[in-house]
Amino acid sequence: MSLDVQILNALRGARDGAVSGADLSQKLHVSRAAVWARIEDLRSLGYDIEASPHRGYRLLGTPDVLHADDLLSRLGKTKVIGRDIRVFEETTSTNDVIEKLARDGVKEGVVVFAESQTRGRGRLGRKWTSPAKRGLWLSILLRPDLRPQDATRLTVASATALRRAIESQTGLKPDIKWPNDILIYGKKVAGILTEMSAELDHVKYVILGIGVDVNLSQGDFPPELRKVATSLKAELGKPVSRPELAVAVLRELDHDYARIASGQFATVADEWEEHGTTIGQEVTIRTGDRRIRGRAESLGEDGALLLRTEHGHLERIIGGDVTLEK
Amino acid sequence: MSLDVQILNALRGARDGAVSGADLSQKLHVSRAAVWARIEDLRSLGYDIEASPHRGYRLLGTPDVLHADDLLSRLGKTKVIGRDIRVFEETTSTNDVIEKLARDGVKEGVVVFAESQTRGRGRLGRKWTSPAKRGLWLSILLRPDLRPQDATRLTVASATALRRAIESQTGLKPDIKWPNDILIYGKKVAGILTEMSAELDHVKYVILGIGVDVNLSQGDFPPELRKVATSLKAELGKPVSRPELAVAVLRELDHDYARIASGQFATVADEWEEHGTTIGQEVTIRTGDRRIRGRAESLGEDGALLLRTEHGHLERIIGGDVTLEK
User: Fold this and answer.
1) Which residues of A touch B149 (CB under 8 A)?
2) Is the pTM higher than 0.90?
């Protein structure tokens, strides 16, 4: 654990809100001068830390920036996701960064955030707008014991986790649109891109890419998206703390990933169906060249959408663009 | 086309077997000295090229080395596979090289050979013995329009193509063991490793890795494999030309990849079933933690093995280790 994480942990855990420099120095086994230097550094990052000769240090406020040490300090212990967090000022796409880490053999659970992405992407290589410091753009490396056709379970679990995190931090009640969108009043506020490297019967690794439009203003979206996309700030009428939301997202993802890993996909699917806008609807799904129309019946045990077609067949759909029929 | 390819093409295409330096110089738009320099270079690689003052140049023999220009010259025009051929003296694994090319956006059809691999691998990360200049160790980049669960079709097509190439070059009659092995009298002589990068419903690229034990001697195999593996040389009693086999493999693969791409998987599957040792047999399949016993009935339209279990269910198996029950 880095010194910054330890200092932030100590400040957050202080019983009466303050910790003396002497206590910090003793607890962290470094000089008081070293503590002071780290505190100065945290201040320069925007942390509002009061230093009083009598009471010691007090954390009064944290900036709306993503700082790996701060996120680790807030997150605390998790099972898998977030054991290692890295924040980039700018990347092409956080999925690209994770892919490189995956090939280098890095363990599952590592999370990469970028304050901005120059080539953020959604499904099928579509562009994902990722303006600096307005959203959460993150990717997570997983190494699940799954067959490629079961990887949809991870998208389903991510959607339930993301929905809960947004609800807990904002009070908003998001819906889930199969397979990978989080909506508020029918407008997209977050998306999930699941990419994998696999042999035929065995996933080597999965990269979960997540984008949440947190504090974007209307002008941040390209004109063609303004009617179909929104942000948490726009819906709530005030900005949302990105570090707090980031930590909530990682914690909920860790919870749902553990549910999948321990064979409880059915409970995740039940929660998904409860909040899904797709089940029970007449829909048209475009997948590759095909256009399939039918009634979305339920989620299959692999995470696929079970669609009762016009001809009465039950089809398993593992991905595609869904349009609700009116 | 490189000068070497053009010279080899001209020598191979010469009507009376020989081409004069003057003709080559004129045809290739380079000086006679330049032609001579290339000929000397080809000789230094082991090409037996006769130069007679009256008749000109004649190709008498080619060495058993993999030379990209020579392979391109022999292969001629193909639809997709082998438009670009690269030969490495040594790599970790040819799949690794192709993966890098794939990420760099290289077009499908590029083929990478290595004379030896330091970390050749088979399914599930198993080691693949790849001694220098004794086999064909190659990988091919494909960008098919397939769903991840249909990628098994490519393994099936590769197996039929590889079987035909071996038969045409050696007269041996190999069998196919589902999903990825080529056998001669029950011993493994070649294998296919299919790896992919995908979104949930869409393959981004597939890497076909192929290993053929061409001229290995018994001592080249690790002791534990000597009873279950063999080489073409061991079965035939004499060495096989690796460049000729390499070209036959690429040509047959190109043919079967085109069959898949034009929707003729059923004809590939028919050919596969004709030479498969698995269909109609009682088998045990281990896939992940599961062990499934049953009768292999046929290939599904996605390339999966359709297994009638002991309990009468029909299961689709997309990969695993097959053991025939006696």
Assistant:
1) 148-149, 318
2) no
